[in-house]
Specification:
With 273 residues, the chain is an alpha+beta fold. The protein has a single domain (3-272), classed as Double-stranded beta-helix, CATH 3.60.130. The chain is 29% helix and 24% strand. It is built from seven helices and 14 strands. It has helices at 3-9, 21-37, 55-66, 142-152, 154-160, 197-206, 213-226; strands at 11-13, 44-48, 80-82, 107-110, 122-129, 137-141, 164-167, 178-181, 184-187, 190-193, 232-235, 242-246, 250-254, 266-272. α2 packs across α3 (55-66), α4 packs across α5 and α5 crosses α7.
Length: 273
Amino acid sequence: MNIEKIRKKFSVIFNNNDFTVKKITKLSNYIVKKYLDDKKSKGFIILKNLSVKDYEKKFLILAKSIGKLRVQDSLGSKIIKVTPGKNVNQIKNQLVKKRYHQTNIGGSIHTDGPQLSKTPRYLLMGCFKNSKKGGESLISDAKKIFLFIKKNKPEFLKELTQNIYFERRGFKYKNNNCFKKPIFTVKKRKIIFRYLKEYIFSAYKINKKNLSANLLNSLNYLDFLLMKKKFQDTYKLKDGEIILIDNHRLAHGRNKFTLDNSASRLIYRVWVG
């Protein structure tokens, strides 16, 4: 679906005067129920018409009205600035590997928080300033992909529903900085998706384990489907817009964007629930 169709069909227009806790809580409950949790929904919604004045404050009011904010790194950060270069929320140790949000690279379709034992339920990304070139958001429906694999490549689904290693990047643990979880989990007929390929590869390297040929083939096939247009929507956030995503159902990524010193891309991110 093209960008303008998405903007018209899957968006809610905000009144900037409505940012009181009481009004936003009522509206956010309606939005989550209708546009994310409903079985017929797309699993995401775009919130339009927000002024960038006091943007971080309004963004947090909205996020907190949906649920409890999750910690996103070992520093306890609950809001992250997704921007290339130096990030005030990141550990200053230069040996720490960069996370995806610290770069301008594209691709890497993933869910947020795959390194946590319980992944965040919802993802909110607020666009304070987008890039001039590139940076379009890519949103892939893992639920549809699961059903497609089940029908067409069930041998791959066997690999994708077994426990595999994930690196707990961005978090510190006394023992092994890895743990095992499946990419696809089915609970009470609900499909939960967990994925960031780089964190899987690095976890196997840390544990000095080799990925089996079957698992590697399954991951490659999954990557292929995540980028197929039939399972994917593309959207470029305008300044002030917020996208709210069902992080258990949808994976996301972006196109590579150019670095502009005069106007760096800045997206606020929170994990909820």
